[in-house]
Specification:
11-stranded mixed β-sheet; Trna Endonuclease, Chain: A, domain 1; Rossmann fold; about 700 residues; 3 domains; alpha/beta
Length: about 700
Amino acid sequence: MGPSTGFSSADFEAALNVRLAQLLKAEGVDIVRTEQQQPGSAQKRFDIEAKIGTLVVAIEAEIDNRRGALADARKRLREHEQGAAVAHEAVAVSYPGGLRVERFDDATVLEWAVLPSEQFASGRPLDLARVVRLMPEQRGDPEAVARSLDDSLTQACEEITANQMRELAEELDLPISQTVRGKKRDTTRAAAKRGLLAITAAAMFHSRLDDHLRALRPEIDARTDQPYKGRWPPDKLAVCLQQGDPVGALHDSWQMILAVDYRPIFEAACRALMAPSRDEGWTSAVHRVARAALSAAAAPSSGSHDLIGRIFHRLLDSARYDGSFYTSTSAAVLLAGLAIRPDDLPDELSDYRVIDPACGTGTLLMAAAERIRDLRPADEREADAQTLIEDVIWGLDVNTTACHMAATTLGLMSPSTAFKNMNIHMMPLEAGSKSQADEARVGSLELLETDKRLFVGWSAGRQVDTEVEVEARHNSYDLVIMNPPYTRDSLRHDQFDDVDEKQLKKREKELMAGRAGHGSSSGTMFLDLGEHLVKLDDGCALALVFPLTGAGAPSALKARRLLAEWFHVEWVVASHDLDRFCFSENTDISEMLVIARRHTESAPSQRPPTRFVCLRQNSDLATDALATATALHRGELDESLGSISAWPADKMAQGQWRPLGLTSSALVETAQEISNGKLFPATSLDSIARVGPAG
């Protein structure tokens, strides 16, 4: 008999499954059915069958029985492999012992594991719903898709002439030469690949729009502000590629889509299509990359936050000069999950502002947008997409192509939503002419320039594909989230000639005068910028990826003190996973995640302790990252995943971030006792001898 009189254990468990299905459905998960057992039938359905797009998820649950739930979930995946049942993914759920149906609500704490991982996480049904909605992100192999697209771009460049490459680069204002340490080299081919990538990204988005185009017919033409009178709908991507003139067919369809809007994605792509001289080579090149985009859009991993970032950074050969490292999806989800709390969001979503002043291809912005949507009522999420894109999310970058990719990444969040005012802006990185050297501009750092009144002023940035001037105001963002460039001074701006490089560094020095940031690493300058952009209101936050050396390096001491003075440093997360000690994909530099929040207590020493997290397992799966964020908010991280240590606020104010070097909280406490002389007399080395470089 089960826990309730008159019910068998199986009946009682089935009742819990029905209740869980109801709670998940209330959070926006599409529940197809729950378990049904017919008398005399040996066939058993999934305990709960959920659907995310075309992805079928089997949820198998047991009462206080992890092992049994895992066994059932594994069985569902085996059945799928054998063609006996359709379950693309499986989740094992363990209900708490003694749970009654009438007490099973949205506050009940469950345990679950997303296969193939057998690591259980815990949380409420709301948290499980978020994990299920993220599951499509981890399917397939985004790196394989990126390699395939990169190969197609390379082959396309072989089909066009050097003159066509130059025409394409010039149309999109991409550099065709580069001077590095006095040596000039031709970058025409790299520029052409980036131009073709703009076409590829637009084609991928076109493919995602195919099923929504008929319903998107505009009343007013966004190109002319006049009533729309043309034919509708535009041809689907596959139909365009079947035409005798695929270039012209794509251009016609993309011009029609521009009548809805989507300017940041399709305007540059249309220019790229028509810029080179038209011949068989150009037609073949466009057909090749658009066909590859069609295939990539159908891949399971096409929805991955970082797919476009992976492609872009394969083409970007200046990362070592400008610090263009892109954040992994899992790290982005963890950072956004810790930075954005349920109570942070206002009732009116359009009043909330998030900015990434070094947005790259938009991975962090996408993670923030998805986190916000997850925290909103389920029945408002589709309507929220337009508000997020047009009002909430802001992105700045020095690279025009990256801005186009960021616009595409955000647009893929909801292809059926027509957006008009996307706040993705290109901030110029350019030296002035010899006669006007004072006109040098250093990207987003220009936002640091204010008038004599502290925290007042603005700087203008150009919106992608427009000449519109826009304002990004200081102290007006609820969250600044970023993976700032942290190239060292000896490499920064080496893609420019010596004269231009000196101008740019001089401009940086002017902007940083009297600030905590300095020229030895551009990352510390962005800490100043982040502090400058975050609202002064309680709870507003700065969340960033930063080199782990910044936790102890003398050169970053002022930056650490800046954070501790103006914020409560709430979380510092580092990885001790030997296989994944970074949070960015294209670097081998150890990194940490930092979440610093404005606090009502003005005296740093009176603020709560900082929680330092040392991860033993740094998963590359977004679902695991979300589970980790949930566990950290609850303060209950499983020991197999890592440890949490509290560190006094007065130590933070002094710039001492010691716990990151140790994975055990007990070792941290012992080290602190040694430092305080409680175990035996001890003194710091730098009190008796000079430590580090002289000067």
